Amino acid sequence: MFAALAAGSLLVSPVAMAQMDTPAQQRHRINLDDVELTDLIEDVSIVTGYTFIVHPQVRGRVTVTSQTALTTDEVFDVFLATLRVHQFVAIPSGDRTYRIVPEATASSSAGIQSRGPNGDSFVTQIVQLNYFSAVEAAQMLNPILNPSGQVVANRNSNTLVIVDYASNMPRLREVVRQLDEDGTTIETIALQNVPAQEMETVLNGLHDEFALNFTAVASDTTNSIILRGEEHAVARALTVARELDASERVRDNIRVLPLSNAKAEEIVPVLERLSAAIAQQNGAGEGSGVAPTISFHEATNSLVLSAEYEMLNQLERVVQELDVRRPQVMVEALVVEMSDNAVNELGLQFVVSGTGNDIPFASTNFSRSAPNILALTGALVSEGGLTGSGSNTFQSAAISSLLGLEGLTLGGGGMSGDTLFGVILNAVENDVESNILSTPMLMAVDNETSSIIVGQEIPVTTGEVLSDSNSNAFRTIERQNVGVQLDVTPQIGEGDSVRLSIYQEASNIADAVSTSGEFITNKRSIETTVIADDGEIIVLGGLIEQTSAVSASQVPFLGDLPGVGRLFQSEGVTNSRTNLMVFIRPTVVRDSEDVRMTTSQRYRYIRAQELMSTGAEASNIDRFVQDVLGTVPPAQ
User: Fold this and answer.
1) Which of 110-119, 314-323, 623-632 has the lowest mean pLDDT?
2) Which class for 437: exposed (0-12), middle (13-18), buried (19 or more C-beta within 10 A)?
3) More confident residue, 348 or 287
4) Per-range mean pLDDT, top range of 338-352, 383-397, 448-462
């Protein structure tokens, strides 16, 4: 590449270079058009005799053109400038050796030099300060550093370690020299009423406006100002600072802070404890200052604060951090219950009776069998001779027994002479399957308990008092919720994980215990605390239950007879199976966009269910939202 000018490279080749006296006497003309940067590095190494250690990230294509011949030193200057344009730097690393690295990493690896070999190289210099603080000097140098440069102050040795382009080093050293001049004075003033940051801004404004040679630095931890500069300038600044701090004592020490998100009554206890701690630290309770008072106005949800000026500022900053919009959690529960009950019954009943004054009688009657053979026999007898209310009673009992009949019933009976007889065979197979699905859901604010109940209230007797004469009797009744209930307290953690304290209940009326209105309720509840990720479905718990019961009734001895024993037996078999599972899914809702998205999803679902059930083309829900609420339905 370092060939003839016509080849588009440097004018002098490596062979020609070797024939000249010294590299400094050689002159070269550069004409490079879109060549690899690594090729340029290799050729400059040949021309200058320097050794380059190239970082793996040093890549790119460059174009360099010179109309006049350049010395070897000038070629090296152009080379460094080209590197800088492409955000690379050459860092001295020993005798005639340079490391070429990306500019972003140069500050951590620049070599230490008493002065930079070239303006475009990256160097490190250590500067000892005798009078001025190295920490303060570092703060003042940062604004004039190259973006890739760095300055580090060593408090113990009061030295500065400066890493920057060599071209910027003279400017930095001159600033340090002026700062480190003797003859300055330092004063510190503790402020009682004005925040240190505000006072720093005011005093430095005086510095600029009246050309006073001093510097003001605020110390927030002690609420004080450090002044450094010429004696008369520092004295003038001290006078101004004291006057401003004293004038703030007469300022209004009451503030009203309306809250947008938090509840004022919940913030008050926090501020009371905080103000007490601040007052104790500042010694406000030792006889001076305004005792802090914190109250709230419920109607406007505002805080009313009365305290010293500085404490008011501190309390207001705390309120601003607390009065933020808290995220919410949409909690969706899924309760699935699948049950299967199967009942098989088989029974045989018979009756044989005579007539007359002395009536021989024989019968089998089992509680599981229907209809009741004795009730039917009574009706048959009443037809044969009973009249009046007795006949009606027997007939009503027979009808009631027949109305409760299930399954297959075969039977017969009659009278033959003085003998009354009857027989009934009853067989029942009953299979009941049920699937119960409930999906309660609710939106809850972070760290707030929310609850939803869907069901009804039923009366439950809790006490009853009867007197001997049945007078002044009374019964105490309590209302009990029956249905689906979900109570949840979410707490959003790191990475949108959600800690959920949950109580979930599903209950329903099973049957009446008595005619007095007492009920049996089936109740499934779960109370637990779980942790789930945003949008993750987890199982809270469940129950898998399977029961089997066999009941048999028979006539003693006769039921055990071989062959004919089944005629004197009644048997029932009951099998039941229940599968219950409870699932939960939390979804974090952080802003109004998340709220709109969640609302639209739920609205679309309920709207689709309505259209599916009615078969209509237009939704009544849309019409209700438009006509009654006077707004546009959520996005479809």
Assistant:
1) 110-119
2) exposed
3) 348
4) 448-462
Residue located via tokens 């029961």: 547
* Helical residues (DSSP H) of 254-388, grouped into ranges: 264-282, 309-322, 373-384
Residue 377 and residue 411 in contact, taking contact as beta carbons nearer than 8 Å: no
Judged on CB neighbours under 10 Å (0-12, 13-18, 19+), 550 is: exposed
Q: How many CA atoms lie within 13 A of 417 on its CB side?
A: 1
User: Do both 582 and 488 map to the same domain?
Assistant: yes
Q: Are residues 446 and 570 in the same domain?
A: yes
Buried b (16+ CB within 10 A) or exposed e, 219-258: eeeebbbbbbbeeebbebbbeebeebbeebeeeebebebe
Instruction: Write down the number of H helices and E strands in the chain.
Output: 13, 28
Among 484-488, 515-519, 546-550, name the most confident range.
Answer: 484-488
Give which of 171, 87, 96, 156 is closest to 122, Cα–Cα: 87
| Domain assignment present for 17 | no
Same domain? For 433 and 483 the reply is: yes
Cα–Cα distance, 189 to 222 (Å, whole number):
10
**Gap between the Cα atoms of 438 and 449, Å rounded:** 21
The neighbour count for residue 324, using CB atoms within 10 Å, is: 10
Q: Are 82 and 90 in contact (CB under 8 A)?
A: no
Give the end of a domain, one of 198, 220, 250. 250
Q: How far apart are CA 296 and CA 573, in angstroms?
A: 70
Is residue 236 scored above 80 in pLDDT? yes
Amino acid type, 68: T
On whether both 462 and 546 belong to a single domain, the answer is: yes
Please indicate, yes or no, if residue 112 is contained in any of the structural domains: no
Specify whether the CB–CB gap between 311 and 251 falls below 8 A. Answer: no
Count of domains in the chain? 5
Q: How high does pLDDT run on average in the chain?
A: 76
Angle (CA) 117-120-122 rounded to 5° is 75
For the ranges 96-110, 278-292, 399-413, which has the lowest average pLDDT?
399-413
Neighbours of 134 (CB within 10 A): 24
pLDDT band at 268 (very low <50, low <70, confident <90, very high): very high
Q: What is the pLDDT of residue 116?
A: 42
And the tokens for 534? 């945003």
Range of the domain at 238: 185-250
How much is the pTM? 0.48
Q: Report how far residue 52's alpha carbon sits from residue 66's, in angstroms, rounded to the nearest whole number.
A: 23
CB 379 within 8 A of CB 416: no
Per-residue pLDDT tens over the stretch 413-472: 666 666 666 666 666 666 666 666 788 889 999 999 999 988 888 887 777 766 666 666
Q: Is the peptide bond before 327 cis (omega within 30 degrees of 0)?
A: no
Pairing of strands 419-438, 441-445: unpaired
556: tokens are 């003693």
Helix spans in 532-635 (H) = 592-614, 620-627
* CB of 27 closer than 8 Å to CB of 75: no
